Amino acid sequence: MLTYNVGVTQPQHHRLPAEDRRRQLLDTALDFFSRKGFEGTTTKEIANAAGVTEAIIFRHFPSKQALYNAVLNYHHESGETDAVLALWKPLMDANDDTGLLRSLVEFVILGYRRDARVHRALLFAALEGHQAGLAQHRERSLPIFELLCQYVARRQGEGAIRADIPAAAVVGSLVGAAAHYGMMTEFFGFCNASSDSDVASSFLDILLHGILPAATSGKATA
Fold first, then answer.
1. Cβ proximity of 108 and 182 under 8 Å
2. In the CATH hierarchy, which fold is given to the domain comprising 78-209?
3. pLDDT tens for residues 171-202?
4. Among 12, 34, 143, 188, which lies 20 to 30 A Cα-Cα from 161?
């Protein structure tokens, strides 16, 4: 007598190369950590969403903390940082201040457009007081910030940029404006009729020339 199993679907487990599986787990985990934070996410739900067992996760990452750290560093591992540094080097060598600073603003805004989940996960890390994750992010990001500050300081010494403003304030003003704009438009629903390219040009123009008309830019305001 023949019997049939009707309506019963057995789970299909597809074997992936180790690196492809690791990327899949990172992408799935990033989705959860960006929506629920570290504390609100379990490895079980990440495994279920990825279609694997928790044992597979721990085969690639020894702990939930290790997975979280890898997620926060995902954009560094993807090669995006190396690519932008390769773009900036000739601009620095040519002393192209406008080109470099514009590229910096565009890079920050593009980070929100490409995948805002990374920034959401970092905000969760700050809100949760997850110092280990934040420390690792700073470790990877600070050398880039310091490189830009060193460039600005050199150009200040050459008289190309005002020397009475700390180099960190010059870099921080552009990074801060671009990052806040990215958050406003991606997280809080603010809209802007201008393109990101036009916004980048405006931020750079404000940094280089201020907001006062040329005739009054050197006068003190009441």
1. yes
2. Tetracycline Repressor; domain 2 (1.10.357)
3. 999 999 999 999 999 999 998 889 999 999 99
4. 143
Residue 34 burial by CB count (10 A; 0-12/13-18/19+): exposed, middle or buried? buried
What sections of the chain are H helices per DSSP?
Answer: 18-36, 43-50, 54-60, 64-72, 74-77, 80-93, 97-114, 117-128, 131-157, 167-186, 196-209
Into which CATH architecture does domain 18-72 fall? Answer: Orthogonal Bundle (1.10)
Angle between helix 131-157 and 97-114 (nearest 10): 160
Domains 18-72 and 78-209 share a fold: no
What's at 92, amino acid-wise? M
How many angstroms separate the CA atoms of 4 and 76, rounded?
51
Q: Please write the tens of the pLDDT for every residue from 46-70.
A: 999 999 999 999 999 999 999 998 9
The CA-CA-CA angle for residues 144, 146, 150, to 5°, reads 120
pLDDT for 75 equals 66
Average of per-residue pLDDT across 81-98? 94
Res 145 pLDDT > 80: yes
What are the DSSP calls for 159-192, one per residue?
Answer: TSS-TTS-HHHHHHHHHHHHHHHHHHHHTS----
> How far, in Å, CA of 100 to CA of 103, rounded?
5
Ordered by start, the domain boundaries in the chain are: 18-72, 78-209
* Rounded Cα gap, residues 100 and 52, in angstroms: 44
